[in-house]
Amino acid sequence: MTMRGPAGGAGEGDNPTLPLPIGDPSAGPPARGAPGRRSAGPGTAGAVTPGRGYGPSGYRPAGPYLRRRRALRLAGRLAVVIVALILLGAVAFGGLLIVTPSVGNARQLAAAQDRAHHVAYPGPAVPARFAESLVATEDKRFYAEPGVDLFAVARVGFEYVTGHGIQGGATLYQQLAKLLYTHGRSTSSDEAEQVALAVKLYLTYTNQQILQMYADVVYFGNGYYGLAAASCGYFGVRPAGLSWPQAAMLAGLVQGPSMDDPLTHPANARAREVHVVGRLVATGKLSPAQGHAVLAVPLRSLVAGRVGRSCSRSA
Predict the structure, then answer these.
(1) Is 157 within 8 Å of 89 (Cβ atoms)?
(2) Measured in whole angstroms, how far is the alpha carbon of residue 118 from the centre of its chain?
(3) pLDDT tens digits, residue range 201-242?
(4) What is the spatial distance between Cα 227 and Cα 122, in angstroms, rounded to a whole number?
């Protein structure tokens, strides 16, 4: 018997075109996230529902946030390394202070050197013009530093690490330590010892005492040890009577007394004098007009000769 639906239509048993249910009708709708589930949103028919994040697997590409985190992590590690190096340097420096000798005998050593060079000790007071010329050229932070110039140490360290070699940086304290304690040597161990001795000199003596000892023992070329001998030998005047051009020329000699000898290498001596005057202007000790006036004096008119004419070499 044939069954018919409403309005004369055929029943479900006779209609092969009716869609059949998928799975067990009593199991209810498929679970969320089950395989094969499709998104039914507008414009996304047939598309797979994206997972959490920026892609199907939740992957998030590296962006400014992650780069910033990496930079902060790297900065933190660098800071730890720097702190460790500072602590290591402090320990090493403390060891140097322990093993280096006391500087309480510095004046006795200076006196012994002057006796060996037949120079009276102590010499006359260091005049202001020579002191200003020497400090401006050799150690511009002399009156403020603790025996060593920390800025110069940082610069020298950077130049060494970057392969530019070691250039300058020795303070007047370090130079005096070199003259009195390490016999003019400049090996790595000697320079390390000079740093420790420089700090000890700073803690033991005044600025004026350091300048006095330095001026009494430093070599100015042509057999002139000490400022008094050089002033009389080159110019025939006592240190107190030095003019700015004369003081600048002498201050320029202490780094290269043979190479910058005004008698045998006048061009080199003039170049050093120009450098010293430039430093005096840069540090405000001379105005630009005064600097031009100093350099207007010819070098040949400054040098009186090898032997002083109006004062003794030990004056």
Answers:
(1) no
(2) 41
(3) 999 999 999 999 999 999 999 899 999 999 999 998 999 999
(4) 11
DSSP-assigned states of every residue in the chain: ---B-GGGPBPGGG-TTSPPPSS-GGG-SPPTT-TT----STT-TTPPPP-SSSSTT------HHHHHHHHHHHHHHHHHHHHHHHHHHHHHHHHHHHHSPPSTTHHHHHHHHHHHTT--SS-SPPPHHHHHHHHHHH-TTTTTSSSS-HHHHHHHHHHHHTT--------HHHHHHHHHTSTT---HHHHHHHHHHHHHHHHHS-HHHHHHHHHHH-B-STT-BSHHHHHHHHHSS-GGG--HHHHHHHHHHSS-TTTT-TTT-HHHHHHHHHHHHHHHHHTTSS-HHHHHHHHTS-HHHH---SS-SSS-TT-
Q: Which CATH class is domain 92-100+108-302?
A: mainly alpha
Work out the percent of the chain whose per-residue pLDDT is above 70: 67
pLDDT band at 72 (very low <50, low <70, confident <90, very high): confident
For residue 4, give both structure tokens: 């018919």
Could you tell me if 202 and 232 are in contact, meaning their C-beta atoms sit under 8 angstroms apart? no
Q: Report the range of poorest mean pLDDT among 96-110, 162-176, 224-238, 261-275.
A: 162-176
**Alpha-carbon distance 159 to 167, whole Å?**
8
Per-domain boundaries in the chain: 92-100+108-302
Confidence (pTM) = 0.69
Torsional sign, CA 105, 110, 112, 113: positive
> Omega before 298 cis (within 30°)?
no
Question: What is the rounded (10 degree) CA torsion for 297, 298, 300, 304?
Answer: 0
Q: Which two tokens stand for residue 51?
A: 């997972």
Residue type, 22: I
